[in-house]
Structure formats: C-alpha cells, structure tokens
Amino acid sequence: MRIAIASDHAAIELKAALIDYLRELGHDVDDLGPETAESVDYPDFGYRLGQAIARGDAERGVALCGSGIGISMAVNRNPKSRAALVSEPLSAALSREHNNANVIAMGARLIGIEMAKACLDAFLGTEFGGDRHAPRVDKLSNPDI
Amino acid sequence: MRIAIASDHAAIELKAALIDYLRELGHDVDDLGPETAESVDYPDFGYRLGQAIARGDAERGVALCGSGIGISMAVNRNPKSRAALVSEPLSAALSREHNNANVIAMGARLIGIEMAKACLDAFLGTEFGGDRHAPRVDKLSNPDI
Known about the structure:
The structure is a homodimer of 145-residue chains.
Chain A: E1 2-6, H1 12-24, E2 28-31, H2 42-55, E3 60-65, H3 69-75, E4 83-85, H4 89-99, E5 103-107, H5 113-125, H6 133-141
Parallel strand pairs in A: 1-2, 1-3, 3-5, 4-5
C-alpha cells in the first residue's frame, strides 16, 4: 500500500520508527516531514497530508503529534480526508469498519511504540464495512458547514 | 458556560446523562439532538454542532457517537470548530491547553459514564495556554486544503 506519513517536531522519533515498521511490512512510504526536531506548526504538516490523500498520492495516511489532537484537527479540515485519532487497536479497527478512515492519528507523548504498531496493524488490516455506513461516509466528503 | 451537545442514536443515553451532569454543574445546555433512538447519520448532527460553535451560539460543544470517531470528523470539517476525540482526562486537558479545543468528542460504546464525566471536567476546567500554541490554533481556522 502507498502510505504518506506526517508529524510535528514532537513526533519525529515515532515517525521514524513507524516508517521503518511500515517498510518492513512491504509498504511504500512517503515521508512528508518534518525532517528535523526543529519546532514546526502541526497544521502545516496536517494540511500537507490531507492534500496528499485528497489528490490520491497515497491510499492511507499516518498523522502524528504530541497528543495527536492538533494534527487530527488539521487533517480533518480536508473533506476528502477522514482522520481517526486513536490510542488502542479497537478504535483503529472501528475507524476503518464504520468510517472508512483513510488517516490514523496518534499521540507520540501518550502511547508507546508497540501500541502504535498495534493500532497501525488494526488500521491497515480492517476493511470498510460499507452498507449503512456508506451514505454517512459520503456525507463527510460533502460537508454542510 | 453555554454548551451545545449533539450525538447520533448510539449515544443518546450518554447524551442524556451528560446533559443532566452539565446542568447540575450550572451550565446552560443546548441539546441539538437527536431526540430518539431512531437511526440517524452522525455527520448531520456533527455539522449542526460545528455550525452552533462557529456562529457563537455556544462557547463549547460535546460530540458523541458510538466510537466518537465519525462525529469528530464531521465537527472538524468546520474551520471554526476544534474537536478533540478523547477517552481519558489527560488528553481532554491537553486539547484545551495546546489546541484551544472548543468541542470534546467521546465514544459512548468505548468509555463509561464516570470516565466521560472526568474527561468533561478536565475539558471545562483547563484554560488555553496561548503563547507558542496561538499561531498554530490560528492556522486551524484558515485551512490550506
């Protein structure tokens, strides 16, 4: 799968570890930055990831910041992105099954690397359930704001 | 504080319990629906809440669905809404301190009533930290999508 990943400075170590993990699993990974630990603004990287998903450059995205909260807000500004902020695998699986989430968001200061990998496994390994969930997901692409 | 609350059918019992709790605390609560357990689409109620926040009808919002994921995506489509999906109080507090979150999202099928109340207490009781966080939050209101 082609997967884009973006973070802020608080999550660059987790980003590096998850890039290695995803590549070991055989995925194509686009690292959208940042490249160093210098302080950056999470919305810049969240928007970059949302655009990559909306353009179809990547099938799935991974969004990381200290808590995962700020970058998940930014990614969800894009009507074509559906980012689920999770801290355990059940939510990660439900986000795929019910919401057809195409981005998983996690907090580098709140969960550890093994929990992050377990969430990623559930996110990548669960199919969208369709059916009654489909019209709801369609509405997310056409926001009434 | 004036607080608007919205959910889907999966969370109407939690919504009712949190409305009681917020009123006991002395808050003004606007129930944006739904009123019955009949199946509805969470984006409709998420958009309604995002609009109430954007118009200034309420200072804060509470968004509930089965997992909290779908409705948090919908609320975050509105550039004036900043919804944090949380399952424990630390994230709820961080969402205020770092992201100036104006909406808290929770999953009725994932956390219990006492945890939801503890999250709400942290969300309502924590001030925005401003400072370096302010320009980042400003960027969330002017999305580059």
